[in-house]
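# step 3/5: fold
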Amino acid sequence: MSETPGAYHAGENVFAVDPAAASGCALGIANVDDINETTMDNIAIFSVLESCVLNKENSFDIPAMMPACTGDKCICGWFW
């Protein structure tokens, strides 16, 4: 059995999480109407939290001057 804990949001961990081993999270947006057209090449990351997995609750900054989508909608994503 591994003594490596899961992510904080996975539940109560009995082992301490090593902050050096934790990765961050990001929000991104693709200016496309169809999710099937979304690729890692057309997603723009606009907000990053380096220690999000160590916190139970997080707040991301959303740029006030973010351009509007050029089509009917944009596709947003959360990355871990």
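# step 4/5: annotate
Residues 35 and 41 are 13 Å apart (CA to CA).
# step 5/5: archive (pending)
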